[in-house]
Amino acid sequence: MCAIGLASNLLNCARVALTRTSHPVNLSVDKKMKIALTQYGRREIVLCSALCASAAAAISAAAWKIHPAWSAGLVAPGVFWAWVLWFFRDPQRTCPADAGLLIAPADGVVSDITPVGAESPLGTEGVKIGIFMNVCNVHVNRSPEDAQVLKVDHKKGLFLDARDPDAGEKNESATIYLSVPSEGGKQSPLVVRQVAGLIARRIVTDLTPTQVLKRGQRIGMIKFGSRVEVFAPLHLARRVLVSVGDKTRA
Predict the structure, then answer these.
(1) Which DSSP string do the residues of 58-93 spell out, in sequence order?
(2) Integer Cα distance of 237 and 108 in angstroms
(3) Which of these, 103, 62, 80, 68, lies nearest to 6 by C-alpha position?
(4) Catalytic residues
């Protein structure tokens, strides 16, 4: 019965993951547990569900034909499946509405705060804040402010440890150039860079040029551990409210 229930949940998860939507979908694992899943994990969730269902079926067959003790092996595909769902969770978030704030684009830990100049992707003096995401963090990224997308620049590169501040320059990345309304009706540059890491091998950037974003709107994710950087000009980042080592929530 345990195997039947596990296989049923796995197949239901695959069905829900195949649903095309721009918002997270709620998977009801049981009556007391609901998980909001991101659309960006659709492929991995379907593949994992199929593999785990096959493994559960094989283990159940072995338990039936060889010895009931084999049923203990059902724990492995169940735990792996649950971890994949947990990784692709996408909880609802409420953004602060105060004017003049730049919010964190990612869950994680602030790894570095560095002044930058005109040679940076920002093109002017400002500050770069790097956030390291481990495999336990929510990996869906969000827009730091109301903005318009100017362009997205994907760059091939290495897969160094994402905790290294130099990883942003050397690793595979997607640099998102934004235009933000500022004082006097002017537009100011703002840059978000998604950086692949040692384990992370796929960057998803769900944006198109000229697209208008709201603060906190989902913009993509990096799969399986990574780094996100924010570049803000000095007049937008007059005061940095985080320190190295602080935990962030997108």
Answers:
(1) HHHHHHHHT-GGGGGGGHHHHHHHHHHHHHTB----
(2) 20
(3) 80
(4) 226
Cα–Cα nearest to 105, from 127, 124, 130: 130
Determine contact, residues 171/159, Cβ cutoff 8 Å: yes
- Summarised one tens digit per residue, pLDDT across range 75-121 is 999 999 998 999 999 999 999 988 889 999 999 999 999 999 999 99
Outline where DSSP puts E strands in the chain.
Answer: 25-30, 33-37, 108-116, 126-133, 140-142, 147-155, 173-181, 187-196, 202-205, 212-213, 218-223, 226-233, 247-248
pLDDT digits (tens, 9 = 90+) for 179-203: 998 877 789 999 999 998 776 668 9
Q: Which residue has the tokens 């709107």?
A: 217
Torsion of CA 50, 55, 60, 65, to 10 degrees: 130
pTM of the full structure: 0.81
Q: Which residues pair with 180 in a beta bridge?
A: 188
Question: Are 3 and 74 contacting, i.e. CB atoms less than 8 angstroms apart?
Answer: yes
